[in-house]
Amino acid sequence: MESSTGKDFKIGECQGQKVVDGEVMPLVLLPPEPAKADTESLVAALKKNREWFDQMIIKNSAVLLRGFDGKNAEDFNEIVEACGWDDIRYIGPAPRTHIYKRVWTANEGPLSEFIYYHHEMVLFKENPKKVILFCEVPPPEGGETPFVPSFRVTERMLEEFPEEVEEMEKKGLMYTFTAPSANNTSSMRGRGWQDAFGTPDPAEAERRVKAMGMDVEWLPDGGLKTIIRPRSLTRVFEGRKGRRMWYNTVVGMHGKEISSATMIDGTEIPDHVVKRCGEILDEESIQFKWEKGDVLFFDNMALLHGRRPSLPPRKVLVATCK
Ligand SMILES: [Fe+2]
């Protein structure tokens, strides 16, 4: 079931693939022949087909490179650099460790926890256009990185809750998020404010938060509460067929211990709407099983992604690009 793209890749298939609005997600690209599975050949193929490859990511929202023999962060970094996109530094609550050049660990929070579907850095003014993941050690069980075509969530929410959706859209949203006083790796959102904002200096952290267009409140326990407003419920990005993306993190932040999501005037978002949205996200999700050496490219404007609970060991690395 493989056909040649006429380029330097063969098109493959993977378990869990779906066809969404006429496009297969993810598009699976394989080496054109076994002798070209090495990283050097892959890097050459990516450099040669940069424009085409970029178009495939926009068109299919997710592209999975499979069957290549990238082994580690160094190989992954070369693959990322071959694509020619600029790096964007990760800002946010997830505990992550820098590994090599543009490569970081993905969220190091406990493997037993589900990481909720999100657009990467959705609350920040500048978000990555591309999120690239590399599987160094596939999990023995679980640990998938499911992803969701964002426009489908908007469509289904509009079908079920047209009035609520329009009210949230019209008013706009407000979030709060509290970064603790220090790192706490026992929580997947346990990134202390020093790490989250890249400085040990409280005044500088405050300046950085404000520079991102957010408000700040220091808590008695030394935590930093960030107030984020206004934020939209959905967004339409150029070149994405006019699709209205569910570009918010209401489900992830609503009614949590360290975060909240409300309408901008303080109106609560009804629990049953948030709960149903969570179910829709799950129903629309695309699941595939990680294989060693997989490189997965997401159009972060078009897809939400998450992480299923996993048995150890699991090692997935990440790079984010402008
Ligand atoms: Fe993420």
From TrEMBL:
Pfam families of this UniProt entry?
A: TauD
Alphabetized GO MF terms = oxidoreductase activity
Q: Which UniProt keywords apply?
A: Oxidoreductase
InterPro entries according to UniProt: AlphaKG_dependent_hydroxylases, TauD-like_sf, TauD/TfdA-like
The superkingdom of the source organism is Eukaryota
Q: Where does the record place the TauD/TfdA-like domain?
A: 36-317
- What are the leading ranks of the lineage? Eukaryota, Viridiplantae, Streptophyta, Embryophyta, Tracheophyta
Return the protein name.
Answer: TauD/TfdA-like domain-containing protein
